[in-house]
Amino acid sequence: MAKKINLLLSAIALLVVLNACRKETPVTGASSPTLPETPYNYVSQNFGQIGDPFFNQPPNNMLTNEGATLGRVLFYDAKLSLNNTVACATCHKQNFAFADNTAGSTGFESKTTPRNSPAIINAGMSNGYFWDIRALTLEEQVLMPVKNHVEMGLENFDNLEIKLRKLDYYSPLFEDAFGSAEITRERIAMALSQFMRSMVSYRSKYDQGLNSNFQNFTALEKMGKDLFESWEMPCQSCHSGNNFNGWGTSASNIGLDENYSDNGMGDLSTNQDAAFDGMFKVPSLRNVAVTAPYMHDGRFSTLEQVIEHYNTGVKKHRNLDYRLTEGGGGIFFEGDGSGGPNIPVIDPLPGGFGSGEPRKLNLTETQKRALVAFMQTLTDYELMRDPKFSNPFTAN
Fold this sequence. Notes:
The chain is mainly alpha-helical. The protein folds into two domains: about 25-200, Cytochrome Bc1 Complex, Chain D, domain 2, CATH 1.10.760.10; about 205-375, Cytochrome Bc1 Complex, Chain D, domain 2. The protein is built from 13 helices and four strands. It has helices spanning about 1-20, 65-75, 90, 140, 145, 155-165, 170-180, 185-195, 205-210, 220-230, 235-240, 305-315, 365-375, and strands at about 250, 280, 330-335, 345. The chain has a two-stranded antiparallel ribbon. A two-stranded antiparallel sheet has the order 3-4. It is globular, with a radius of gyration of 23 Å. About 40% of the residues are buried. Mean pLDDT is about 85; it is low at about 1-5, about 5-20, about 25-30 and about 330-350.
């Protein structure tokens, strides 16, 4: 009996030790951010090029220079993680258009995330976040990685507030942003959301060509653009709009697998219908040339591999998007004559909404190269070296 009691006490002691190891690491020798005396201008940017009417900005959290400045510091501050090792920027790197260059990102305990970190660019032109669209607003989304047990591990937001109050550089930043030095989780989420909304990509070669009928494009780039926008191809049907993300909340099963180990939207507890299995958010194609690897699991390392998937690799699945099936057609956009935004119109190919059989695009090698060339024109190099989006904890 005494032996059993000793074993039980030993097990309890081990659990106590393991739990202690997961406690918050104290903040010691914390470095302070270096910020300009006058805040960077985050507000007066060219939103019009990428669909100003669709900019998602709640009236109680309008973008301000001071709010985005605070959000920038929070975004790069590793003190938002349990052990002060991981920041939002750890998985969303500026030089990769705020995506990550690995299939899975490394969390606070060196564990790997099960999904690829998507690019943040033009988050204000979206109405759903994460690959499974489990967050409908940025304010809801931004603190989920902080709390996540793999990503940043700070599950108790009371502790997050206490932790930031101990850092002397935050009180004046919160006061500038919100009128008082009070630090709350709601304000943390608002500031992070403002900074992320300010990450607008609008200076690519494609954007420069909008006002000149793309006279700046090479012959191959023009061919790729024509293919991308053609009635016969499914590209623009999903990656529509000026942000190339299907107007923000589109999701699709693109036939990556016959049986998915990760069912995307189908794995959410709120979805009780198998019709969601294998469905993932349609990402923006802006800066896609620098955001490899691709897909929710990072299975493709090059754009050429992505195009080949759509060309010959689409697999049959009960939820396969009809636009990727034989006779499936697509969605196109027509104006209503009022000068307002174009209206989506479903336009099936002959045969209706698809046979269910995966469609082959039969692209030539030149057409494949042209599509890659066009997607490369969507890269905004200025954004990736803009100092107002850079790490304030390191010298610029």
